[in-house]
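Reopening this one. Same input as before:
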Amino acid sequence: GMADHGRCLLHGLGGAAAPEQGEALLLAAQGAGWQQARGELERYWFGHGLALLRAARGAEDPALKQAVASLRRAANSGHRRAAFMLGECLRHGTGTAIDPIEALAWLRRAVALPDAKVIVGDLLYFGQGVPRDPVEAFRWYQRAAVEHQDAYAMYSCGYCLLHGEGVERDFGAA
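Same output, byte for byte:
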């Protein structure tokens, strides 16, 4: 039906790829109750963005802007890894202008991922383009340490406890 045709157009199966038409059909299928369409679109746009990032020949490659646009589409659909990668592109200015505030917003949407928790903590701890907030930074480090046994997060928690950064100084816990 409609969803299968949308998939074929999206991926160029049985003919030329027509991603915009495929997306429109999949969105219509989702509206008609086929909830898997959302995941299909998330995976497509994430994969497309990732392929463009990997194929880029340098920092000025115009494909990087397309990669960011594809990651944004996937992230807007709820793809966490795409939200993380979009946040990193915005944080470092890859394919887009550096925007730490928007980067932080996308990274917060990706906090189910351990690396996102740590980077959110770093942005807040160091005040990298956002207001410095060592209390909230410590909370993010602590979550990454407890939930994912992340070594850098454990070190960061210890550092904060040792120096009283965002938390009361506690030599025993450090």
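So the earlier flakiness isn't reproducible anymore. For the record, The mean pLDDT is 93.
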